[in-house]
Design brief:
Radius of gyration of chain A: 24 Å
CATH superfamily of the largest domain in chain B: PmbA/TldD superfamily
Shape of chain B: globular
Number of domains of chain B: 2
Helix content of chain B: 10-25%
Number of strands of chain A: 22
Order of helices and strands of chain B: HEEEHHEEEEHEHHEEEHEHEEEHEEE
Helix content of chain A: 10-25%
CATH class of the largest domain in chain B: Alpha Beta
Shape of chain A: globular
Oligomer: heterodimer
Distance between the termini of chain B: 56 Å
Number of helices of chain A: 10
Largest interface: A-B, 79 and 75 residues
Chain lengths: 470, 438
């Protein structure tokens, strides 16, 4: 736990006083203090290319009245600096008065341990794993031309001080291990990437030589792509594999169900609450409470305990994801979804672990039912236009389906669809729900936050595949 | 006030002295300070204000050919000392890499000329509010516009880059940026579009009224889009999209991608990679330029580079480390391109629209569909169907796909180049791409 006041002329009592006095006439707000320590170690091109350690400390002071949010941050924790911020907030909100809402739910549950993953594994042993990855892959096959492997670790300690002196704290570990391999065969080059991670120590993810499985998977994806043919272009049936392909759910549905876009009525979903937005059998939740997952949080960045929020239940739209600000303006409660990248940024309603739950069909049944379509197993990234509802994602491993059988691998192609209608095109939901391996970062308004996704195999009756073959 | 040169220099030399004292053979340090203030508006009233004040420090220490780095936002001497100790301890156990070194001394920038990158004008928040009021007023005159969001950001920055070979320099920069996002709705659809202006000097920012008008106009014309069939069709890229082709090209010719062998343009120096009418230039010394710099992120002098001459690839973007690997001298592009642009073409915008009886005009792409290893390109797109030079109807929920190797050779540029951003392109037409739709 960080003590934010021991090396500063600012005492906790001073901070409490300034916070209470600033937020007295506001509807909400808090002082958010953050200290993060992070490292990244990269092996590339047969060498340890970089090892970087970073430490960051700062505060963000927020005051909200009515619809107006005033925010000021600094990385100098001192009495002067906090007073300056306070003046800044007061000048923005001078003519707008509010009534401070002191209520904030409490919970004793924790979803990860107070560890510092950086300190739990020596630099030497991290370098050793990276070198083993390099040797393993380069010896594995003569077609290997490039290997990149990396560790990224972080410990973030936060403290939230609310008006009246209430303080809420959290310590958040996060690690990621990543391998990328490039192969060359007959003049063609293709890459495969795979990674794992979450809110535990490095060794929890690397035990039993698990790094080898990560290498094998990256190698397998690259090998498949070496044999790939141009992808088809046009509307067709699409079978999505379980796990990481759930970024479709994240892009197509998730962003559109975030509170801010719906309060502002700029989301294609804003007038669909209680309506049928998906096929029967489709249930989607956003869950911050799964132990040690990348998208899990004990409390969100406003201090609200996270929860399991049902977004769509059996096809019907049930809830939006809310932070305190949007919840207050929409007369509802926060779902513990208020998140920020760090103290430099304002809080926005964001996803945590977004999951489609299992149904009772098998992947096999789905493939067999398709005359002409594609089977998408792995994805790069995705993006959505919240307002029109159109979303895309990029396949990194996909196959043709012809007459109920999986055919040749196809080149990376973008798939495009319409968020509010895509889930009505889901005609089969598999019994094989899987979590992603712990690698997702979601971007919104220039802020990246770690997230998770999960889904079973699903069959979508109609989507546009953006290949080159007509 | 943004911290002055003296303060940043004293921090930088404190770091270098300490690193040397601990036994580092070389070191380099960057210290920066940045203050920015943003005001956000929504539907003609104040929505948020945001003030940020940030210091940043990054240090690299060398022990012969061993190197590691640290960064921090905490500039207290005591914290710096702890971090440099940690950095140097890490350096000791990091394996040697023969290409690690500070830049060659004779390539370092000697004297820096004023590029007029700093405007000390303070645009008080009250003035920002007035600007945004005018902007949103003009953006919401049409009743199909149901939401407007806009913001004005003012930023002042200063930095010092210093290394143990005696380089120590830096300068102030400023930027002012206004943007507007509008949402329009009709009985069939809801659409969003935007317009923005970003400049070094306040007086160069677009008029609020023009910005608002343009955003609204661009949004309304997207209403009631249609999906078109899958076909091969000539594609016209609006300027705001065509500059993205340059960014993809720049990533593919970075010395890092070339040295690692992960670029489709590896080993293509002196070969034809674009249509022979195409010239691409990177010019660091444009006065008030958004991408202008006196030296790169290592202190290396940067001169104007002709990257593509009559379609032929002439230069990579070279930094010290990857340059040594490729046996090339750094050309001051550690940190990438500066002001990158296509020289303008010969045909007018109107004639480009009329060139084919039917073409697709793209105003926005979504997704990360560029694969720089293979050159494959596939993204989601929105735009307009153009027939005989006329915009017929808006189009969405389609993808466009091709391969950069073919696309670059089929580029035709209009003569409407303007220097608005750090990457600039005229309107562009590419033949032979595939559209996937219905």
């Amino acid at each position: 736990m960080s003590d934010f006041f021991n090396k500063s002329d600012l005492t906790r009592q001073d901070a409490d006083k300034i916070v209470s006095e600033t937020l007295n006439n506001c509807d909400d707000g808090e002082l958010y203090l953050e200290q993060s320590k992070s490292e990244s170690i990269l092996l590339d091109d047969n060498k340890i290319k970089s090892s970087n350690y970073s430490s960051d400390l700062g505060f963000g002071f927020r005051a909200i009245s009515n619809e107006v949010v005033a925010y000021s941050y600094s990385n100098e924790i001192s009495k002067d600096s906090l007073k300056n911020s306070s003046e800044n907030l007061k000048s923005t909100l001078k003519s707008i008065k509010g009534t401070y809402n002191h209520e904030i739910p409490k919970s004793n549950k924790k979803f990860y341990k107070d560890i510092n993953p950086i300190e739990q594994k020596t630099l030497d042993s991290k370098l050793e794993v990276l070198n083993k990855v390099n040797d393993f892959l380069r010896k594995k096959d003569g077609s290997v031309r490039q290997v990149t492997a990396s560790f990224a670790g972080e410990q973030k300690s936060i403290e939230i001080i609310r008006s009246g002196g209430e303080a809420l704290t959290d310590v958040r570990p996060l690690i990621r291990f990543n391998v990328s391999v490039m192969l060359e065969k007959n003049g063609r080059k293709e890459t495969g990437v795979y990674g794992i991670g979450g809110r535990q120590s490095y060794d929890d993810y690397l035990k039993n030589d698990n790094w080898k499985n990560v290498c094998e998977e990256a190698f397998r994806i690259a090998s498949v792509n070496l044999e790939s043919k141009p992808a088809p272009a046009g509307e067709m049936k699409v079978v999505l594999g379980p796990g990481w392909p759930a970024i479709l759910i994240h892009e197509a549905i998730g962003h559109g169900l975030e509170g801010d876009f719906n309060r502002k009525k700029t989301s294609a979903f804003h007038d669909l609450m209680g309506e049928k937005v998906a096929s029967e059998g489709v249930t989607i939740i956003d869950d911050g409470t799964i132990d040690n997952r990348r998208g899990s949080l004990t409390i969100d960045d406003e201090g609200t305990p996270t929860e399991r929020t049902v977004l769509i239940e059996n096809g019907i739209l049930k809830n939006f994801m809310q932070d305190r600000h949007n919840a207050r303006l929409m007369n509802t409660r926060s779902t513990g979804s208020g998140r920020r990248e760090n103290y430099r940024h304002i809080v926005l309603p964001r996803m945590r672990n977004t999951m489609m739950l299992s149904g009772n069909q098998t992947q096999d049944e789905m493939i067999k039912s398709v005359d002409k379509g594609i089977f998408a197993v792995s994805f790069g990234g995705g993006q959505v236009d919240i307002t029109s509802g159109k979303f895309v994602f990029n396949c990194t491993e996909a196959y043709e389906i012809n007459n109920g059988k999986i055919g040749s691998p196809i080149k990376g192609a973008t798939l495009i669809g319409d968020g509010p209608s895509i889930l009505k095109e889901v005609s089969m939901v598999g019994n094989d729900m899987m979590l992603d391996p712990g690698i997702g970062t979601c971007g919104k308004a220039g802020q990246g936050v770690p997230v998770g996704v999960a889904q079973p195999s699903i069959l979508i009756d109609k989507m546009t595949v953006g290949g080159t073959k007509l | 006030m943004v911290k002055d040169q003296e303060f940043l220099k004293s921090k930088a030399s404190y770091c270098l002295d300490l690193a040397k004292k601990m036994g580092a053979t070389d070191a380099s340090v960057t210290v920066g300070h940045s203050i920015s203030e943003t005001v956000n508006f929504r539907n003609k009233s104040l929505e948020a204000s945001d003030r940020s004040d940030g210091l940043a420090l990054s240090i690299e220490t060398y022990l012969g050919k061993r190197r590691s780095s640290i960064s921090s936002s905490n500039l207290l001497d005591e914290n710096i000392k702890t971090l440099i100790e940690k950095c140097f301890e890490t350096t000791k156990i990091t394996p040697e890499d023969e290409f690690n070194s500070l830049p060659d001394k004779n390539l370092l920038a000697k004297q820096i000329s004023s590029l007029n990158l700093y405007d000390e004008t303070r645009f008080e928040n009250d003035k920002k509010i007035k600007y945004l009021k005018d902007l949103e007023e003009s953006a919401s005159t049409d009743n199909q516009i149901i939401n407007t969001e806009s913001s004005f950001t003012e930023n002042k920055s200063n930095f010092i880059l210093a290394n143990s070979d005696g380089f120590c320099d830096g300068y102030k920069t400023s930027s002012f940026a206004a943007s507007c996002v509008t949402v329009a709705k009709d009985e069939n659809s809801m659409e969003r579009d935007y317009e923005f202006s970003s400049k070094r000097h306040l007086s160069d920012i677009k008029q609020a009224i023009d910005l608002g008008n343009k955003a609204a106009k661009q949004t309304i014309r997207k209403l009631s889009p249609k999906k078109i069939g899958s076909e091969k069709i000539s594609i016209i890229f609006d300027k705001r999209i065509s500059k993205g082709m340059l960014s993809a090209f720049a990533s593919a010719i970075s010395a890092s991608a070339i040295a690692r062998g992960t670029s489709f343009l590896k080993d293509k120096i002196d070969q034809q990679v674009f249509a022979n009418s195409i010239n691409v230039i990177d010019k660091p010394d444009i006065v008030k330029g958004m991408g202008s710099q006196n030296f790169d992120s290592e202190g290396v002098n940067s001169n104007t580079l002709q990257l593509i001459e009559n379609g032929i690839l002439k230069n990579y973007l070279v930094d010290t480390y990857n340059g040594k690997k490729l046996n090339l001298k750094s050309n001051g592009r550690s940190g990438g391109t500066t002001n990158l642009y296509f020289e303008k073409g010969n045909i007018s915008y109107e004639d480009l629209l009329k060139k084919n009886s039917r073409s697709l005009y793209i105003t926005e792409t979504i997704g990360h569909g560029s694969n720089l290893v293979t050159g494959d390109y596939s993204v989601g797109a929105t735009g307009f169907l153009v027939e005989d030079g006329e915009f017929k109807y808006p189009v969405n929920e389609i993808t466009i796909a091709g391969n950069f190797k073919d696309m670059f050779k089929n580029i035709l540029l209009a003569n409407d180049l303007e220097f608005e951003y750090s990457v600039n392109s005229p309107t562009m037409m590419i033949e032979g791409m595939t559209v996937a739709g219905k």
